[in-house]
Amino acid sequence: MDSSDGRHLAEGRLVPRSEAWAQAAAERAVELVVSALDVNTLLDQVDLNAVLDQVGIDRLLDRIDLNNLD
Fold this sequence. Notes:
Low-confidence stretches: none
Number of strands: 2
Strand content: 5-15%
Structural class: mainly alpha
Distance between the termini: 49 Å
Radius of gyration: 22 Å
Helix content: 55-70%
Mean pLDDT: 80
Strand order of the largest sheet: 1-2
Shape: elongated
Number of helices: 4
């Protein structure tokens, strides 16, 4: 691979240097945001019952044959 053309490997493919830099910056930003999250505080603000009502967990469970699960 000739690195003089300004391309680098990213996810197994050759991409322009600017795209590789942008991808690395985005990945780092996501890491910083996720590490800064206080999951307990977030969960305190979520009404899990309301979420499950929206999902319709009872309808989902009605479709699963629990006797055939291994």
